[in-house]
Amino acid sequence: MTREIAFDTETTGLDPRAGHRLVEIGCVELIHGMPSGQSWHSYLNPERDMPEEAFNVHGLSVDFLQDKPLFGDVAEGFLAFLGDATLVIHNAAFDLGFVNAELDRVGRPALTNTFVDTVSVARRKFPGQRNSLDALCERFGINNAHRTKHGALLDAELLAEVYIELNGGRQRGLDLAAAAKVAAVQASAGASTTISAARPPRPHAPSAAELAAHEAFLEKLSDPLWLK
Predict the structure, then answer these.
(1) For residue 89, what are the domain limits?
(2) 150 catalytic, yes or no?
(3) Which residues of the chain have pLDDT under 50?
(4) How many domains is the chain partitioned into structurally?
(5) Which of 58, 79, 97, 156 could hold 28 in an S-S bridge, CB 3.0 to 4.6 Å?
(6) Per the domain annotation, does 25 fall within a domain?
């Protein structure tokens, strides 16, 4: 089973080394490249103030976050959800930097999961073009009208859709999904699943009347090409 996690965070600023903290984590599970319907999400109390610049990005205030859990309270559940899945992250250095700083703060080792940085993938596919999450949603026709502010879970859901399109789109799994659905319906009805081979063409031997009509037609032709 191929398991991946589209993953996003919101923070109080740009640099964990300057004392900035996580305030939200959102994760969306993909199985064999498609969303499974499973997700993990938590707001976090950053134990500090909220700079105006950060608030303008995600709209999460100190008042809203003050009764939310600390990172250490949710770390175990968060790591259990990630497991050994490959992480799908838009600008991986930023999110991983913050997560690993929080893990270090509670005495846990840094993440060792493999990861895909969708910014790097998009830059290779669309060199010289805008490759923000909003720009990629627009390019792939993904509806992000409800994204008035950044939100980790919403952005992880959008990122999962973008990642699918960067990998070739949903059509990759449609045939398999349709076959699986048919098989499931047949199995529930007690039917067996069969695959029909294409029927070979039936041989046809012309009748005496058809041969005579063909000869009469040929006699009407003057100077046919096949006699030259």
Answers:
(1) 3-174
(2) yes
(3) 172-204, 226, 228
(4) 1
(5) 156
(6) yes
